[in-house]
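Hello Y.,

Per our agreement to keep a running log of every chain we model this quarter, I'm adding this entry. I've kept the format consistent with earlier entries: sequence first, then predicted structure.
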Amino acid sequence: MTPPLFQRSDTQPSLARPSLTHLRHVSVRTSAFDESLAYYTGPWGLQAVETDTGQAALRGTGAEHHVLHLTASETNGLDHLAFGLPDAAAVDAAATNLADRGISLLSEPHSLEGPGGGYGFRLTDPEGRVLELSTLVEAVPPQQLAKTPTKLTHVVLNTVDIDAAQAWWCDVLGFRVSDWSEHQMVFLRCNADHHSIAFNQADRTSVNHMAYEVPSLDSFMTSLGRLKHDGNEPGWGPGRHGPGNNAFAYFVDPAGMVPEVTAEVQQVDEASWVPRVWRRVPELSDLWGTAGPPSENIRSHMAG
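Predicted structure for the entry above:
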């Protein structure tokens, strides 16, 4: 089936959209908090910047205060996704414009009390995901650890209606469509990265996987070696995707959630980019031809 929409819809061109700059962090509830904390600060390579009883904020080597927030819970799930805005004026304007569109906010712009602080507000998308838009988050000192993740580069979300999800995130939040994987996945960007968010058509609303970018292919292979030596084999990968052109390897964390190590995410030239529809065939899912099909185990965990 051909995707019905290839780009942002401008059904309401007079209403401004938030000027999102990047994906800041993902916050998840985890049923294996202690084990997951040890996993992500151990072979995964993230570092704890704030910890409390049953909570931890973990950073990469990039400028973002933290890229992953863990909260102990009886079940796994998404707590919220956080996106950056350039300044306080942009936060205030986004809140006003979203309210003008009839979007209910969970809070007005205010000083945030979570890890890294900042100034922002929260809202929900039509499937109930909590989104945080913020600025003025605390700075962290830069690090030169070349073989560990620099940032959270994208999150893939399972959706019960891929067309409705794509339309809302583009029309309301200002994302742009980069590519489709048939009518099964759609890749959305808010900056030059090929995708910060992607949606996968599924029978439930859940998290598919979270991807952390390392700075080079050498870092990518070293990360896989570090994980392997700790007893962690990829459930799919290593390979190189067609959509996004990124190197990939997927794992299962101690709670059963799926993190991805990735590198060389494609950069989009806004002036010339035209979305494409990629067929879901092995030679396009993995351009290197090294990964083979994803295991049944990784598929089941990606289903949420």
